[in-house]
Design goal:
Organism: Leptospira interrogans serovar Zanoni str. LT2156
Strand content: 25-35%
Low-confidence stretches: 1-7, 75-104, 111-140
Structural class: alpha+beta
CATH topology of the largest domain: Cathepsin B, Chain A
Distance between the termini: 50 Å
Mean pLDDT: 80
CATH architecture of the largest domain: Alpha-Beta Complex
Protein name: Intein C-terminal splicing domain protein
Shape: elongated
Pfam family, one: Peptidase_C39_2
Helix content: 10-25%
């Protein structure tokens, strides 16, 4: 097999690459290496990097989503497998907390700016194509693009001579915001990184920034921007690769072509493992551009998600499913969640720390072996990212109806059924479970619709077994201890309240009292004094005992499910942050600062509740079961 000579190429630090430089690029359609120009150079800062060790020698520090070409295992002979694999040693995936200044080498055509800037790529590199040696296996279809975070020890990745290198080490680590660089390469969108003493590097796919740039070209007519955007065969967005579809001819009755079907993009899968569709189209007034995403073709969610030209979601998660799961290693994912949280913060009156560019500053920490993102408030508080709630108003299970009312669960032997009024103690922990990465399957979404309904029905089924002597009626979830819910409901989804992961006020809320028909005024006043004293003691314990524990849990990166006196009957919310004056809360009923908030239809996301406004009776955290 012929390869490119080290005399023709030099390995340059990626930050030294300029637009117009010629780099070595792999054409996956022809299995050949070619010389292609760099059309864009990108730089951004990330708080987390992956360390990748290849063949026990090459060390590459890169972002989580950079694709390498991996050999896809099929049925092959033992001799072929041994031929591809290197020594069977490696570094297990783990965590470190240190900063790395890194430079990734790129195979770059030797350049002389004064003599070659006017030449074509073929003139710069006479040997444009070098045929890959395929040996006893072929690259296509037995190889695939895989993001770094999905690589595993002993995976085989494509090298610049057509052979396969071995992943011998991989882990990710948190770092201070570090500059990383990426390229866009014409046609093939691939280039070679690394480079050992023999001049062998590794093939990677380039960064996909063009779609965002095209959509945001405000000085370009909307029609032209849409045409430019739809010229892309594929692009990465929201953690999925979107492939262009549509454009089929529209025929009249005589078979004559009278138009074309609109182009759209389809994802490999959404959070429910089904494909979504994404349309790029003008806004209603025709003055700008938007993206309209149909979630599972409206089968499970009737509404659509709308994004602006900067790919920011403009909709409301209360009515349209859930936000995409937060990936702290992906700057786009973090930005998405930060922008969304910023919207509510500005409305609610609390503010976040900014960086030197005036953007909300993000941080990461290791929580139970996983990287979690958070932001600090300007007055010393903290808000955890990645937890988003949806409303429980007008919620029911399929079309289950009793006495002309849609309900969650038809409880046996009683007309006191479980309705949307009684599932906050499932909705709140469900919010935490999804924030910790739980993804409902398509079958679960189809049956239950939302996480809250699913957990509520599981809790109620356990409650049906908790009957009292002489009665066949079980308990509602609101009358079940959190320890029992953890063991018999939350555990079915892989979560539990950890040891030391709960706090109790210690003073229960007293029942309301009223003056009896024969009771003296003095006697009633004495009972009222006892009642008020107990309320005061409960409020004091909420501030002195429960509050410090919750604040400490948030500092450690744990969202807190809290039950308290938000309504006369009590209510359960998810606390995801705090500032100097109060908690920052996801409330499935809406904003409790609004009078009669159950019926107002207000959004309960990131609402701000002063510490002393509501007494809290208990709080708990969840973690994945070990």
């Amino acid at each position: 097999m012929s390869g490119f000579s080290s005399e023709d190429y030099e390995f340059a630090n990626i930050e030294e690459i300029r637009i117009g430089d010629v780099v070595r690029s792999w054409n996956e359609n022809t299995n050949t290496f070619e010389n292609k120009r760099v059309t864009q150079v990108f730089m951004h800062e990330v708080p987390q990097l992956f360390f990748l060790e290849l063949d026990g020698e090459e060390e590459i520090h890169t972002t989580w989503n950079h694709p390498f070409r991996r050999y896809r295992a099929t049925q092959e002979s033992e001799s072929n497998r041994n031929e591809r694999q290197s020594a069977g040693y490696g570094v297990e995936r783990g965590f470190e907390n240190h900063s790395v200044e890194h430079s990734r080498n790129v195979a770059l055509e030797n350049r002389d700016v004064t003599e070659t800037s006017h030449l074509t790529p073929n003139q710069l590199a006479p040997n444009v194509s070098k045929i890959l040696a395929t040996g006893n296996y072929s690259l296509t279809p037995q190889s695939e693009w895989v993001k770094v975070e999905d690589l595993k020890l002993r995976d085989q990745v494509l090298r610049s001579d057509g052979s396969w290198g071995t992943v011998t080490g991989i882990y990710y680590y948190n770092t201070e915001p570090t500059k990383v660089y990426n390229l866009e390469v014409e046609d093939n969108h691939t280039y070679v990184v690394g480079g050992d003493i023999f001049g062998l590097g590794y093939v990677v796919h380039n960064y996909d920034q063009k779609m965002r740039d095209v959509l945001a070209k405000v000085n370009t007519p909307v029609k032209d921007r849409i045409a430019m955007a739809q010229s892309r065969e594929s692009f990465d967005f929201e953690g999925s690769t979107w492939i262009r579809k549509g454009g089929e001819p529209i025929l009249d009755k005589k078979g004559k072509v009278i138009g074309k079907q609109p182009h759209y993009y389809e994802s490999a899968s959404n959070q429910y493992h089904k494909s979504d569709r994404l349309y790029i189209e003008p806004t209603a007034d025709g003055k700008d551009i938007q993206l309209r995403q149909l979630q599972r073709e409206g089968e499970h969610y009737k509404d659509v998600k709308i994004y602006d030209k900067y790919l920011n979601w403009t909709g409301n998660v209360d009515t349209i499913g859930n936000l995409p799961h937060l990936n702290p290693s992906d700057p786009n994912s973090v930005r998405f969640h930060v922008d969304y949280t910023d919207k509510f913060a500005n409305e609610r009156g609390y503010h976040f720390e900014k960086d030197g560019n005036g953007k909300t500053k993000t941080h990461t920490m290791n929580v139970d072996g996983e990287s979690r993102s958070y932001i600090n408030t300007t007055d010393g508080g903290r808000v955890l990212l990645g937890y988003t709630a949806s409303t429980q108003r007008e919620t029911y299970y399929q079309d289950l109806t009793v006495n002309n009312k849609k309900i969650i669960y038809d409880r046996p032997f009683t007309q006191n059924d479980l309705t949307s009024d009684g599932i906050c103690n499932a909705r709140a922990p469900g919010t935490v479970m999804q924030g910790l990465g739980y993804k409902m399957t398509d079958a679960q979404v189809k049956e239950f619709g939302t996480m809250g309904v699913m957990v509520a029905r599981t809790s109620q089924e356990y409650g049906n077994t908790l009957t009292s002597p002489g009665s066949l009626v079980g308990r509602k979830p609101s009358n079940i201890t959190i320890e029992a819910l953890s063991a018999n409901s939350f555990s079915k989804y892989g979560f539990e309240i950890p040891k030391g992961g709960s706090i109790y006020n210690g003073v229960s809320k007293p029942d309301k009292i009223s003056r009896g028909p024969l009771e003296s005024e003095m006697a009633f006043e004495r009972r009222m004094e006892v009642y008020n004293n107990q309320l005061d003691l409960r409020a004091k314990r909420s501030l002195d005992r429960v509050k410090p524990w919750i604040v400490d849990q948030i500092k450690q990166g744990h969202a807190v499910v809290a039950g308290g006196d938000f309504t006369d009957d009590g209510h359960v919310v998810t606390i995801v942050g705090y500032d100097s004056k109060g908690y920052i809360v996801h409330d499935s009923w809406g904003d409790a600062n609004v009078k009669k908030y159950k019926g107002t239809g207000t959004s309960g996301q990131y609402v701000h509740y002063p510490f002393d406004k509501f007494s809290l009776g208990y709080g708990y955290t969840l973690r994945k079961k070990k």
